[in-house]
Amino acid sequence: MTTFQSQPAEGEQPPADSVAPRDSSSQTPTSIERLNQTIKGFVERWGSIWVEGEITSWNVRGGAVFGRLKDLRSDAQISIRLWSSVRARTPADLRVGDHVIACVKADYYPKGGDFSFQVSAMRHVGLGEQLERLERLRRQLRSEGLFDPARRKRLPFLPHGIGLITGERSDAEKDVLRNAELRWPQVRIRTLHAAVQGERSVPEILEALQTLDADPEIDVIIIARGGGDPQTLLGFSDERLVRAVAAAATPIVSAIGHENDHPLLDDVADLRASTPTDAAKRVVPDVGEQRAVVQQLRSRLTMRLQQRLQHDIAQLQHVRSRPVLRAPERMVESREQDVFLLLARGRDRAERRIHDGERRTAELRASLRALSPQSTLARGYAIAHTAGGAILRSAEDAPAGTDLVVTLEHGAVDATSLGRHDSTTRASS
């Protein structure tokens, strides 16, 4: 696209790449007609170019068509014109939302200053090319792990609130609401309408998804459309929508009714439903079925309790029928004689042990008495020891003048040593 630069200062020539006439100045300004003619001549030198986009406007006026093409990856748009001669050579089924390629040439209308592109050829982008592009994106997203079953969130058994994104007054909306209310009359559904094909579909679905995902009362979100050909389902394979669904905190159910080809939304959603009706059945439990299940569980619980009580009563009766419980005193009586015998045996053993102990004590006492110094003293012997307590064992231990203590059988006497006693001398004298 050509950009117009700022007006040069007085006396300054326009830049070399400027479209404006070079001889214009504040004293001699150029005319608008001349400027437009200059622009027209500049634009016509661009020639023709092939572009790819989506038809967002298609108005037929007197055989000619005035419309707009939108870029597939951004909001950039251009105005297009198809004269009747060109329209006769283009497919008759072209309409808003179609993905096309066109040969266009820039056209500037000097009288009104309008800028547009004349179309010399236009055709649908081949379905094979679209599918190939989708498959490339599918492989990329799969390599990133967006299709991994492990990342899918489980749907709640009975959601408190259900978010529904679908077309306004569409059959898909009617199918979801009708089947959900039939299965659970108290179900709460918050519906946000969005375009389900064309250029507005992806932005509106993204906005609705963001709103419902931020609602704390919404436990699951259904994105529903009543099917269509692969061309009309392209919006549900948009990378922006697929990544937004993968990043959502709320479980997402894809209910895009179709048969063979399926959009990328099916692969990244937490649950894929074949139709909007199937989505309602998968998300909302059937109150009749649940009541039947509860009744069945109650019956099974009652039967199991009765069986358990009967089993326990039979076990108790069996235990009570045992002899030890019918006459518990018999167990004591049968053990009474055993206790008596054990007591008698214990008494005999104790008496024998006491008798043996007394006999052994007497023997030890006699031995002790026989070895006791007291017995020696009783036979007339005495023990002499010094005043310090040292027992005399030799005459040399008590020289003359040594104080001694002589212990007898009964008491002790003090004595003084006169020295060594010569028994031979004493005996002869």
Automatic annotation (TrEMBL):
Protein's UniProt keywords contain Hydrolase: yes
Catalytic activity: Exonucleolytic cleavage in either 5'- to 3'- or 3'- to 5'-direction to yield nucleoside 5'-phosphates
EC number: 3.1.11.6
Keywords on record: Cytoplasm, Exonuclease, Hydrolase, Nuclease
GO cellular component entries: cytoplasm; exodeoxyribonuclease VII complex
GO biological process, one term: DNA catabolic process
Superkingdom classification of source: Bacteria
Compartment(s) where it occurs, according to its Swiss-Prot or TrEMBL record: Cytoplasm
Pfam family of the protein (one): Exonuc_VII_L
Region (Disordered): 1-31
Domain called Exonuclease VII large subunit C-terminal: residue spans: 146-360
InterPro entries per the UniProt record, alphabetical: Exonuc_VII_L, Exonuc_VII_lsu_C, OB-fold_nuc-bd_dom
Domain OB-fold nucleic acid binding: 31-123
GO MF annotations in UniProt: exodeoxyribonuclease VII activity; nucleic acid binding
Subunit structure: Heterooligomer composed of large and small subunits.
Annotated family: Belongs to the XseA family.
Function of the protein: Bidirectionally degrades single-stranded DNA into large acid-insoluble oligonucleotides, which are then degraded further into small acid-soluble oligonucleotides.
Protein name stated in the entry: Exodeoxyribonuclease 7 large subunit
Organism: Microbacterium oryzae
Lineage: Bacteria, Bacillati, Actinomycetota, Actinomycetes, Micrococcales
